[in-house]
Each structure stands twice: as C-alpha cells, then as structure tokens.
Amino acid sequence: MVALIVPLRVPPPERRNLPPVSIRFDREEWEEEVERLDERSEARIQALRARREIEGGKAALDLQKCEADDEASGTRLVGCVKSYVPLGKQGASEAPFGFVFQLAQNPDGSLVWNFIAFGERHPDNPATRTVYERAHKRLHGRYPE
Amino acid sequence: MAIAVRKLDLHVGELVEIEGRRYEVVPDKTGGLTIEPPITPISELYEKRGMKPASAEDFERIAGDLPADGEG
User: Fold this and answer.
1) Does A144 reach chain B within 8 Å, measured CB to CB?
2) What is the pLDDT of residue A2?
3) A44 close contact with B: CB closer than 8 A
4) Cα–Cα nearest to A86, from A133, A42, A130, A24
5) Which of A70, A72, A135, A143 shows a CA-CA span of 20 to 30 A to B68?
6) How many helices (DSSP H) and strands (DSSP E) are in chain A?
7) Cis peptide before A86, with omega less than 30 degrees from 0?
8) Is B29 in Cβ contact with A138 (below 8 Å)?
C-alpha cells in the first residue's frame, strides 16, 4: 500500500502551540473516489490537479468544518473538514467539487487529515450522490436515510 | 427477439461481481435499488493501517476555529 503524506498549509492555531497536521491520500480511498471516474471527466481532472497542488505545497487550503449532524441531508460528518475543488475557488459554479478529510490518529499517535471522499457538492443529477453523502457512507457504512 | 429478464434477489449492502468488477447494492434515492462501485468503510481501512479516528478533543483543538458553510 502506498500512502502519500503531504504537508498541510492550513494556518495552524499556533497560539496554542499545536503541531502541524499533514494530509494523507491513501491508495484505496483515491481509487474508490477518483479513479472510479472517467479519465477525461472534468471531476477526475480537477481532483488530480488539486491533489498535485496540495502535494506540491503550492496550495493554501481553505478548509472548512463539515456538519456534524446535517438535518437537511441526514449526513453526519463528525471530525471531518472539507476543501472545495478547484482549490482557491468558492462558489458552487466555480468550485463544483469537494474533498472531505477526517482527522485521524496514526499508529505512532500523530494526527493526520485522512482523505475519505471526493465528489460533487451540488450535483445536477438528483441520482448522483454528493461528496457529503459519499463521506457519510465511508464513515457509517451506508448512505444517510 | 425478446430479451429474457433475469430476476435478482438483491438487498442493500450486498456485493455483486459483473465481468470481474465488484459493485455494491445501494438505495437509489427513489425507493429502488441500484449498484455502484463499493465504498470501503473507513473502519476497515483504519484497522489494516493501525489507525483510528482522532478524539473529539483533538478535533476541537485542531479544527475548532475553522469556519463552516452549512452545506454538508
């Protein structure tokens, strides 16, 4: 198994002397979330580009907390954050995709943002699962009711 | 010539294999079922790697100050 760990350029709460937290893209999650998509699809191209920007340390990630208990969608993403894709964009039209990461603990006790889901934030096709629903399924084993 | 319909007795959570590829049976949002590439539960992946979710206290220390957009 190949795990890629890259530095996270999120401003840490340095005033509290917390250690920096890395981002981890593992093979299984990447295959299931990104490589399921057609190689020429906009989603896959944008995911790969965003990952390369993160790996290259060129991206300043605008991480946001996910909803621990979202009543509207039923998703429960406790302990998770997200980043819009393409990186640096904000609106749904400019950044239609998203990464979701869960804060996890490595065997040595260090903390890492572990990549768990990628997908559309607001899919046009109502049958398409949102990135938040995919993250919920990864965490809880089934889609939200 | 009419195509014969194969009826499958499948339930949510079951895995099927079609031409060497695995799919999971999931709800389709309209009361029916569909199949899609499986999403491995993070608990299984963490167990293999010796990892575990961080505590709520660690999350609050690390991410407590991050904003939220309320969309999911």
Assistant:
1) no
2) 43
3) no
4) A42
5) A143
6) 3, 6
7) yes
8) no
